[in-house]
Amino acid sequence: MNPTSRLHDEAVxxxxxxxxxxxxxxxxxxLEEADEPGGQEALLRALRHVAExxxxxxxxxxxxxxxxxxxxxxxxxxxxTLKTVLAVLNAAGLRLSVTRCGDHGAPx
Length: 108
Fold this sequence. Notes:
6 helices; mainly alpha; 108 residues; 63% helix
């Protein structure tokens, strides 16, 4: 990770610490953009930002995960299971929701 990216990450984590309610909106936007190029990586980074803002050790404990396992799952090369993602969201006081988008999948 380059230094500019690290500064951005630190700024986002600080913003999330200062305004915990912002986490839901931040993750919702990342989830909406997950099918864009680079979107899945951005969603994973956003989830990590939220966990860092609340404390990785705290989130790991609430999620019932080893701290090292959570850190690895939410790393740039991580590939967390749905179970892990849901546990982290729950530990952060958040919930995944689904909404209908546009006309995709609409009956003809």
